[in-house]
Amino acid sequence: MFTGIVAAIGEIVRVTPFNRGQEDSGVHLSIHAEGFLRDSTKLGDSIAIQGACMTVVELGPNSFSVDVSRESLNCTAGLDAPGAVNLEHALRMGDSLDGHLVSGHVDGLGEVSRFEPVGESWDLRINVPAALAKYLAYKGSITVNGVSLTVNDVADHAAGCEIRINLIPHTVEATTLKHLKAGDKVNLEIDMIARYVERMVGLQHIG
Fold first, then answer.
1. Which of 91, 104, 156, 192 measures 20 to 30 Å from 20, CA to CA?
2. What pLDDT shows up at residue 116?
3. Contact 191, 102 (CB under 8 A)
């Protein structure tokens, strides 16, 4: 479990396919994470990378490695090539819940339609596929590339919806969101409360 509050920006420095030359191969990621790892971090721990929960399989002084299956690669963006990534440790009992409850399971991919400065803030707009659009609401929560954010507007359209998010300068500076541009794919995780509400309402209809 996570909160969507990014602890550090790491860097994927090496991507090694399990089976070279095979399109269906998963990959082994080596990630440099200066100052991120805790003294208590150990093999088997969960770390969110760009919003996707992964298991630590190797540890170094300022680095760690994870294995990513082809299925996970097909469902996410930003885990198949070297580059900057948002990192967050798993939530511990007693930790402050500053964002919202995040599972680290990417529900789908959105596409950035706009990312521009507006006054002192930034205007981020994302097209969300129809399968996820119904879970989004004004002032509701969504996780974008592992960052807990608040939806400021939802505009429905035939293919799903476009959401608008206002980003303060600190959020832009402290995360990889600063690198976004129109057309980029982003990892989305919907608010798990919305998921449970849909399930409960659906069961009432069946009853």
1. 104
2. 97
3. no
Task: Look at residue 200 and give its three-state secondary structure.
Answer: helix
Q: What would be the CATH architecture of the domain defined by 108-206?
A: Beta Barrel (2.40)
Q: For residue 149, give the H/E element and its range.
A: strand 147-150
Residue type, 20: R
* Bridge-based pairing state of the strands 52-59 and 46-49: antiparallel
CATH topology agreement for domains 8-89 and 108-206: yes
Angle (nearest 5°) at CA 151 between 122 and 118: 15
Per-residue pLDDT tens over the stretch 111-135 = 999 999 999 999 999 999 999 999 9
Compute the average pLDDT of residues 95-123: 94
CB 174 within 8 A of CB 84: no
- Beta strand 108-118 with 121-129 is antiparallel
Other CB atoms within a 10 A radius of the CB of residue 18 amount to: 14
Q: Are 24 and 70 in contact (CB under 8 A)?
A: yes
Residues 6+ apart with CB under 8 A from 170: none
Domain positions in the chain: 8-89, 108-206
- Residue 66, pLDDT > 60, answer yes
What was the pLDDT predicted at 65?
98
Strands 8-17 and 52-59: unpaired
